[in-house]
Amino acid sequence: MKSGYSKRAGKTLRTLPPEVRKALFKQVRFLERDLNHPSLHAKKYNESLDLWQARVNRDWRFYFRIQNDIYYIVDIIPHPK
Q1: What average pLDDT does range 1-25 have in this prediction?
Q2: How far apart are CA 58 and CA 48, in angstroms?
Q3: What domains are there in the chain, each with its CATH number?
């Protein structure tokens, strides 16, 4: 599978601290290989919007949709604690 980014996610990506950006890219590579990779903790976040959530690290999450053979990253946010 491949990945793509929304404009919103792309804008957030440019403002992320370098260590978070590096962790995100690593996690997206894991996602491209295996949706069930243990470090992702990927889960369906909103059934009606077909939106999934996965972990970047302890403090950040990314949200994505699966469209055909593309994981489309729609948002990257700090984890609401």
Answers
A1: 96
A2: 26
A3: 2-78 (3.30.2310.20)
